[in-house]
Amino acid sequence: MRFVAEHTSVPVPKVFDAWTHGKVTVIKMRYIKGRLAWSAWDRLTSVQQASVCSELEGYVKQLRSLSPPSPCQVSAIHGGPCRDHRFGSVPIGPFRDHDSFHSFLRQDADLLSFQSKYPDVLALHSGCFVSMFTHGDLTLWNVVVRKGKIAAIIDWECSGWRPDYWEYTKAHYNPQGTPQQWFDALSRTTGEYNEHLKGERCLWVAHEFPASPAEYPSK
Predict the structure, then answer these.
(1) Which domains, and CATH codes, for the chain?
(2) Which of 7-11, 167-171, 177-181 is the least confident region?
(3) What's the sign of the alpha-carbon dihedral 182, 134, 124, 211?
(4) Among 140, 72, 59, residue whose Cα is nearest residue 101
């Protein structure tokens, strides 16, 4: 959150302190007045909804303009292990390239072994990508709105350097009634990754939580 605040104009709560209590990390940050977009969306006018989507496009564009440590790195913001509820319950990585990251998502299964059952995964994991800074959970549950504007984007625990398709596909992972215009706004900034989404959805069925403490502590 501090990195985003220092390098972009994306509105995030100011972080005052952070500490660990047992296995729980606690963050002390500024309270943001407003409503989560999921509960406020139907109360917004069509003009306000369009304005929020336009703001979202601009903020995602800023995040994607940040330079990663290396073009193919998959990691947390400063190069360490990354967390994401898509992976499971433990931190994973970092990964030096997308091939090793994709191998992890397949639980080290050979890519060709997926071809007969999941051809869309073959198409996805044989592609070439560039790592970009990704929020990793851009749903209406993680955007605070006030007076028809985005007041803050919150919940950055899934953020980090990911393949360029990840922001778009991950937004579909737990959409919870997200309107199509939200996905349209994302696609106008990220580009359309519908074929990649097909591959990811296959993996959500085959290996939705590839990380486990016993088998995948890191790579």
Answers:
(1) 34-206 (3.90.1200.10)
(2) 177-181
(3) negative
(4) 72
User: By the 8 A CB rule, do 89 and 182 touch?
Assistant: no
pLDDT at 213: 52
Burial 165-180 (b: 16+ CB within 10 A, else e): bbbbbbbbbeeeebee
- Please compute the mean of the pLDDT values over residues 71-91 and round it to a whole number: 93
Q: What tokens appear for 40 in the block?
A: 């406020």
Cβ-based neighbours of 31, under 8 Å, separated by 6 or more: 13
DSSP per-residue string spanning the chain: -HHHHHH-----PPEEEEEEETTEEEEEE----SEEHHHHGGGS-HHHHHHHHHHHHHHHHHHHTSPPSSTT-BBSTTSS-B--TTTBSS-B--BSSHHHHHHHHTTT--GGGGTTT-HHHHHHHTS---EEEE-S--SGGGEEEETTEEEEE---TT-EEEETTHHHHHHTTS-TT--HHHHHHHHHHH---HHHHHHHHHHHHH-S--B-TTT-S--
